[in-house]
Write a structure and sequence with these properties.
- Helices cover 79% and strands 0% of the residues.
- By secondary structure, the chain is an all-alpha fold.
- The longest helix is centred in the C-terminal third of the chain and has 44 residues.
- The chain starts with a helix and ends with a helix.
Length: 132
Amino acid sequence: MSATDVLTVAAEGGIVGDGRTGANLALGVGLIGVALGRLALARVAGRISTGNARTGALSAMAVGLAGVALAALHLATSSGGPGTGNGMVGAIVAIPLGLIAVALGRLALARSRRTERTADRFGPEREFRSTS
């Protein structure tokens, strides 16, 4: 099975399931992306000391993009309109969730780069000041 076939089956709700399963999958992936983005921002701010903020930011962006792709694919393959039980409204809600996850990941990535530059610039001076 190719990657396109796997995404199509996932967007349609899998082999067993109703039309809302694909939208629920996209919503779940989008929510996971938002959670990863929030955790990455917390790591950059120093509120969480475990993990790498850069890795968290990149994973939030990737998961958010996957959520948007699943939601768009579900919208493209579903029949009927909103209110017919095919999960179109859920897929429409999943697209902004995925985009929010991408934005949070991008913000965390930018802040982590800024923090690294500041630490590189002022790191040696702090070492000299502490020894004298």
